[in-house]
């Protein structure tokens, strides 16, 4: 029943928008084409294919909401994206200043000076504030002073609440929610005795900021419209700041757990990766392909790249047997027999050594099969060419 009502409402809205292609204003016998209206169909198209990134909100001029959708994976793990399914018609009416919508909005504004309480918006402020505060905590270096950490975390919580609270026709200040957040954090810091970094504290602080923001919120009387370049610049700054928090977390605090349970800093593991034999071999391979392309032309670049990837495993097989490419069939058999005797599982009595030897033994057998099959294939090709 609910889905039926939603689909009926959406179909009626789409029909009305399609029948109103352009709006005209008659003034002193002159027909003036008004500013192009936002399309409901285009909005739904952007919502369907790019909704997780908030592109449909940017199209409608709701830049804060677009940034929130981008930074929280579609409005806090796609919840906001799903809700937009039945909210988009109202968003389109808002940006187009539809007469019926504006009449209802004016009546609400005359009835009271502040918007009515919205559970969804309140929950969004609470969750996004918590998420932003927690992200800043992750991004801060371990040796940062406690007072600076406290201020920055409170700023992050308040920014999250402020962004959600100022979506659409609602607006509120920043200072009062920040003061409430800072007081709450200070009390929790004093009560917890140097354990203020616990994540539950952030939720209490976010709740304090959300309640304070909603208490002082009001209607947005003037809907400001900015130039496209200005909007893009502001949005890029927001995205750069948000991305820098994740990069700071990866650099200062991210850790990788090894198979032995040891924790290694992510930045150290990246440095070690670029010094590892795998990366050095890969970089040397790319350099070799590039030099080969400059020397013999770029037409065979794809073939050289595929060859470097070793799809048949021949290069690795030579490496396992300790041979160079090319090697004769007798050299391959000699290396195979030597390694088979060396790694035969029956020679090892320790269980762990036996498992490792069995693994190495199977690799040697696999490498030998790859190279012998290659030799057989080459022999058959030579025979075919001779017969021809």
Automatic annotation (TrEMBL):
Record-level GO cellular component terms: membrane
TM spans (from-to): 40-60, 66-82, 119-140, 146-167, 228-252
Compartments it resides in: Membrane
Source organism superkingdom: Eukaryota
Keyword annotations: Membrane, Transmembrane, Transmembrane helix
Pfam family, one: DnaJ
Keyword Transferase: no
InterPro entries the UniProt entry points to: DnaJ_domain, J_dom_sf, TM2
Domain J: 316-388
Topological type in the membrane: Multi-pass membrane protein
tRNA-binding in keyword set: no
Biological role: May function as a co-chaperone.
Protein name, per record: DnaJ homolog subfamily C member 22
This protein's encoding gene: DNAJC22
